Amino acid sequence: MNFEYLIISGGKLPPFSFVKKLSNISTHVVAVDRGAVMLNKLKRTAELFVGDGDSLPPQITFRARKSIMLPTVKDLSDLEVALDLLPKSASKIIIGAHTEFENRSDHLFVNLMLALDNQNSYFADEHGWVTGLHNSQVRFHCRPASLFSVVSPSKFRMTVSGAKFATKNMVIKHPSHGLSNHTVPGKSCALRVKGKALLFVSRSILNCKIKL
User: Fold this and answer.
1) CA nearest 37: which of 22, 27, 51?
2) Using CA atoms in the order 209, 7, 202, 141, what is the torsion angle rounded to 10 degrees?
3) Cα–Cα distance, 57 to 6 (Å, whole number)
4) For the purposes of burial, counting CB atoms within 10 Å of the CB of 184, is it exposed (0-12), middle (13-18) or buried (19 or more)?
5) Cα angle vertex 125, ends 123, 130, to 5°?
6) 85: helix, coil or strand?
7) Strand intervals (E) in the chain
């Protein structure tokens, strides 16, 4: 399993050993603002750097083929600008974006909305991953009994196979009715969603196989 882009955001980052493994399976690296610090540790040249510099350490140097400096006052987040600049169909893994950092739960919420709207994007840390589904499907394989959940801010329809609780054309009318489920031995799990939903998987993405 390989990704076209590893996007290093400026939030709470996973351990370096985990990031290094993701770097090894990603063709390109993109650094978003403070993510340039991790970029330096990886000793890689970024395909793109996007940021306003407000969280960068003084006098930091890094290598990037293209850099876009943003104003500190803007309507879009640095990560949102970076995602908009990359090919929509390209597979992306984003770190440092989907957990709360520096007590900014608003950033967490915005980034989860980005996950909902950006297909082929996987927000990950060493514990699990999140991806958005929009009238689409995903197939993945993890260790048996891996927990996953599907939630959405709006009504959607879902079909699940290869899991402990198989469903067909289940209608989820409210976020509190989102389905929690478990993978089963020897099977890949397939989800098909009509509408918009977020898939949360409580297993390291390095220990899962995703059909990209």
Assistant:
1) 51
2) -10
3) 22
4) middle
5) 35
6) helix
7) 3-8, 26-32, 48-51, 67-69, 92-95, 121-124, 129-141, 147-151, 156-161, 167-172, 179-182, 189-201, 209-210
Residues 159, 144: contact at Cβ < 8 Å? no
pLDDT tens, residue order, the chain (212 aa): 899 999 999 888 999 999 999 999 999 999 999 999 999 999 999 999 999 888 788 888 899 999 999 998 888 889 999 999 999 999 999 999 877 666 677 778 888 889 999 989 999 999 999 999 999 999 999 989 999 999 888 889 999 999 998 888 888 876 655 678 899 888 899 999 999 999 999 999 999 999 87
| Residue appearing with tokens 């882009």 | 5
Nearest to 172 by CA among 160, 189, 190: 160
pTM over 0.85: yes
| Assigned token pair, 174 | 């409210």
